[in-house]
């Protein structure tokens, strides 16, 4: 067999006949003029999993993704079986390739507005393009709002953390601080105490009550009173927490409960608005266990509807929603087929007959 030229320029041979190996990256970005069975808004774990289920069910599916998954500052995705520690960007690259492998389209872009139209939705992108979708899967995720304390945002996902399951192991046995920001903060301190014996609770503007003080003290969590002014950084590492009175408490990681805000402004035209989450952690779009929202034809999956979902749970919800949407489309198509069978001269049956006879050759007269 002739050797392959690994460089692709044919220059690695020694007089032998070479076959040039070229890697062609084809990204399908031409939008279908007749629209899609499903448009998925957001190409994170939830959206890509939904798209995979749909593409494998031979549905035309378009994923529009603005490219800012929630966990992008983190070095790796943890607690994900068989892909433990994979960089978030690599996970999504693999997911996009898998969806494309079954004919799904994934393209960069931002959905600006969705409005109802005949047989589905008009999905308008912020760059001026628009597509029709019979069904919509909202998987646009959420953003984390942090307290307005200098230094926090720049360290987010690195040594300013929120989730013991995402990065607790990585800070085990370190000097960990927990910033009191809301109802979850004492719970967070107790969870991180499982990972380190050196946990300090910064009461900040939310001093713990008597019962909470007893719980923290009983578990060996130190309590520091006083408002936090900033985090101390040395080189590229968090080294402490500075209080308003100037005291610096040495810490290697700081746990902060963010307020979770969903990215759902584009749904306003459908009357679908986020609600406050009952756990007091931020917002969510209400949906049932299959992802079905209160707006017919619209499903939601991932952090947009479950702010606590980790990557595995977001992916599972996307798969569930994709399967449910496929089932919903099948039900609609079956109703239409039955109606056509009962009335062979209806406009619907004529249109179906025309489609079968002409396929792609049909025109708009
Ligand atoms: C710092 C940090 C670390 C984490 N670490 C872990 C971990 O180790 N393990 C783990 O399991 N979980 C982790 N998580 C949780 C994880 O980020 C979420 O579970 C996951 O991102 C949810 O997936 P999703 O698909 O719902 O949303 P996302 O991953 O946020 O994806 C949503 C996508 O939709 C796009 N989008 C938004 N609006 C629009 C629009 N209008 N048009 C088009 N696209 C749009 C966004 O740009 C984004 O690409 C972490 C979270 C944070 C904050």
UniProtKB/TrEMBL annotation:
Family matches, as Pfam families: Pyr_redox_2
Every FAD/NAD(P)-binding domain range: 36-316
Keywords noted in UniProt: Flavoprotein, Oxidoreductase
Keyword Oxidoreductase set for record: yes
Catalytic reaction equation(s): [thioredoxin]-dithiol + NADP(+) = [thioredoxin]-disulfide + NADPH + H(+)
Gene3D superfamilies: FAD/NAD(P)-binding domain
Keyword Flavoprotein in record: yes
Region span, Disordered: 341-365
Protein name in the entry: NAD(P)/FAD-dependent oxidoreductase
